[in-house]
Amino acid sequence: MFNFDFYNPTRIVFGKDRLESIDKYVPVDATVLITYGSGSAKKSGLIDKVKAVLGNRKVYEFSGIEPNPCYETLVKAVEIVRSENINFLLAVGGGSVIDGTKFITLASYYKGDSRDLLKYGLAPIPFDVIEKAVPFGTVLTLPATGSEMNSGAVISYEHGKYAVMSELAFPTFSILDPTITFTLPKTQVANGVIDAFVHTTEQYLTFPVDGKVQDRIAEGILQTLIEIGETTVAEPENYDVRANHVWSATLALNGIVGAGVPQDWATHMIGHELTALFGIDHGQTLAIVLPALLEVRREQKRAKLLQYAERVWHIESGSEEEKVDLAIQKTREFFESLGAKTHLSQYGVGADKIPVVIEQLKAHGMIALSETQDITLDISQKILERAV
Ligand code: NZQ
Ligand code: ZN
After folding, report:
1. What pLDDT shows up at residue 48?
2. 184-387 in CATH: which number?
3. Distance from Cα 281 to the centre of ligand 2, integer Å
């Protein structure tokens, strides 16, 4: 197992009817900015409920944080934070609203051009660049990204999606009430299962380092998602199933699976370009890229793919090749069973578009991806060719 630091200060408030806890964890004298998306939380009455719990605190609202939150939108909220002396942010939404709020919190005390914050990638922004941020909490409405319990964000700017990481971007608390997610459209529920699944595989399907606990946590999350996936899509108000979906998604990317083990974020990095170029939902891009990537990288990942085949899919018989083939096929079929498409061509994107994707990967410095930094642009091209 590799050396690691594990730090996660986010308080999780899980279960039915937990909104009241906001009153406990937002300072009584706070001036609060509630951030949300394009209207689902307003329409469902959630924003009004949150405001009622905030009681006499001074409250402002900032709506319109779009899926794949855009820099240009977020800087408008930064202006409000500064002009109204906001000292607590409350994000009510999915990964996009939470990520956007993380950027707002980091940019609010930053004196320079906040586009600077987009250049650090998966490395944390150094403390001498940002020393302080506005504290924030979240009310999660979409189980997928794990953003509610991690310190990362993904921000869209021009034709790119940029990772932003900072220890100052952990939420102080997150309310995880599965009933709040009942209003989600089926495609978003499916996206959420796929996102959580792929976060887990990207910290598991690499090479063995004898991280026994990490492996078994990963396998537990993957098996849970396989068990509940179809039902959480088909039965939106099945509380017990949705509760397991929510907690799996949070655990998949709160640092616990990836501590001390190799990580391969290539599926995400290639997927981000597909979202930026063609507007395909984040979760859908992962369903397209992961099976193709596993096929291309089967030799490098052989030992863990076999472990995955045996322990997650219970494939006991056949040669090593057959086990790996079947595990990849089952992965693809699982995504399809949720209603997701797993080929680029099903989104109208043909092989002729691959050069543009490669160009963008190059422009964003994505030239040495994977757990061993050996996915060059040529290999990304092979993956994309498989994904068509
Ligand atoms: O904008 P509203 O009206 O809220 O509608 C949203 C949006 O259209 C809707 N929605 C959310 N909760 C709902 C709801 N509709 C009805 N009922 C509810 N309860 O769902 C749509 C998608 O929302 P979004 O927040 O974009 O989805 P998701 O949570 O999948 O977030 C995706 C974003 O997270 C980033 C992705 O790149 C993408 O930008 N990621 C963030 C990560 C992180 N911070 O750790 C890791 C991930 O890998 C991911 O990259
Ligand atoms: Zn993701």
Report:
1. 98
2. 1.20.1090.10
3. 10
